[in-house]
Amino acid sequence: MQAQLKLNSCFDLNDGNRIPVLGLGVFRTPSGEIARNAVRTALEYGYRHIDTARVYCNEKSVGRAIKDTMIPREQIFITTKLWKSDWENPREGLMKSLERLQTDYIDLYLLHWPFKGFEKAYLELEKLKAEGLIKSIGVSNFKIHHLKELKNAGATICPAVNQVECHPANSESELLEYCTKKGIVLTAYSPLGGQGRTLVNDPRIIGLADYYKVTPAQLILRWNLQRGVVVIPKSVHPERILENSGLFNFEISKDDQDSIDSINTNERRAFDSDRIDFRPQESFPVLTEEE
Ligand SMILES: NC(=O)c1ccc[n+]([C@@H]2O[C@H](COP(=O)([O-])OP(=O)(O)OC[C@H]3O[C@@H](n4cnc5c(N)ncnc54)[C@H](OP(=O)(O)O)[C@@H]3O)[C@@H](O)[C@H]2O)c1
Question: Which of 73, 125, 193, 262 is the one with CA 20 to 30 A from 173?
Fold first, then answer.
């Protein structure tokens, strides 16, 4: 059980840094006014963690919104991710992200997917961390065997975070247990179930949410927090951004945590990371950065 979690609570990372337990995700949040408003709103409501990626094409908007709020940079945790197009030159990829985000360091830089050659790209991230351009390095969409392969390839820094799809229908309990043993924090992406597929209408979730007098989204997110998993729900609606931060004035009992666990069917909705090299380019969403 995660005792006494608050909106500004953090989990400890294995490199001495800390990650806020709640972040705003911005995948498929269109760049420009929509992304800027979502990020500004989240920061006004007390979020201090934004999860973006080079390939979301909204780093510029995230950077602008952060500047607009005048909140000191060191109070905000920014995660972004290296895409495979930059794997030949991760430094250049990072420098472009820093420029778009208007910052001189990234709190958490992730290898977005285990595309072929991920080991070499990770070793480059280790160097960039040593230079202070990245505070923490991590991975995303890594299965247990990918984490082992990283170590076998000579990685000297254990990833601080593994960001994977994780919600009641795909609870990733085995991976969570493995990562926890290794000191790797799991971050849940698509923590509500993902765009167009959220679990907020699941009658089992609704029943329990009613019992706790919270919304289905709050119940689902709180379940992960109590497992020690960071959540980064995405929304472009202020009322939902606020709702998704209301996770800290109730606690799910052990029995009810177990009953949410039992919803799991290992139903991963995202692409299987073992087959990511075969994913057709046209199946990735087409997004554009603001001018
Ligand atoms: N590393 C990776 O490969 C990877 C992959 C996917 C996602 N991610 C990260 O994880 C973040 C979250 O994942 P996600 O965007 O896939 O899915 P998600 O957060 O599980 O769900 C987002 C969907 O839920 C809706 N929603 C948000 N709050 C709600 C609420 N309180 N009640 C009902 N519906 C609600 C959103 O709609 P509205 O926006 O219309 O409110 C949106 O359609 C992403 O934004 C991204 O930062 C990472």
Answer: 125
